[in-house]
Amino acid sequence: TEAVGMSDLVEFFIDNPGLLAEKALSHIGISALAIGIALVVALPAGVLLGHRHRGSYVAINVSNVLRALPSLALIAISLAIFGLSTVNIEVALVALARPPILTNAYTAVDGVDPDAVEAARGMGMSEREVLTVVELPLSWPLIFAGIRTGAVYVIATAPLAAIAGGGGLGDIILNQPTYFLAGVIAATIVTVALAFAVDALLGFVQRALTPTGVTIPKDLH
């Protein structure tokens, strides 16, 4: 069994900053594309279903099925269909990011205080105004919590994309014969740091965009 000391780990960081930076940027690109596609697909669907108080089976149960599938299984299924390609990787990562975004968007909008919604309608607001002026501002913290969760899932799982030729930090993590255990651990540390950094950044954006008077629950910070 190969052992690695702190000196070996530090030495790898010192000797390979360019490699780690290159793979980290690739990792961010792979993850950002998947999160962006998941947002375009899942966020409007969740918000619309929540506004109409319909489709809870689709929004929650189907998403839970996708969430229950192991990440490797998603990649393997996609690999069988698309082969070694970027499409394969993105399909698997989008499937991973979609459930928390869709479920949180649906739950957040569906759970807005009915009295506030009826009061808005009583004032003559259109359905679009009810959604944009009342429901979305009140549900924003929970919606954004789903986005943060999906983003962290994708970043933490993206190294597995190297199995399908995806690149990123997984190229180091899954190639111990070339980079040795020190490289595997170093790339893992960078992956964890990226996940924490993205979560912190999205948390800052969440607080900045949350309307005054709307409280962000402590477990969503």
Walk me through this protein's architecture.
The chain has 221 residues and is mostly helical. It contains 9 helices and no strands. Helix 2 packs across helix 9. It starts with 5 loop residues before the first helix and ends in a 12-residue tail after the last helix.
What's the alpha carbon Rg, rounded to whole Å? Answer: 20 Å
How many helical elements?
9
Strand content: under 5%
Gross morphology: elongated
Q: Helix/strand-derived class?
A: mainly alpha
Q: Which range best describes the helical content: under 10%, 10-25%, 25-40%, 40-55%, 55-70% or over 70%?
A: over 70%
Q: Ranges with pLDDT <50 over ≥5 residues? A: none
Cα separation of the termini: 40 Å
Order of helices and strands: HHHHHHHHH
Instruction: Give a short account of the largest sheet.
Output: none
Average residue pLDDT? 85
How many strand segments? 0
Essential attributes:
single chain, 221 residues, mainly alpha, 9 helices
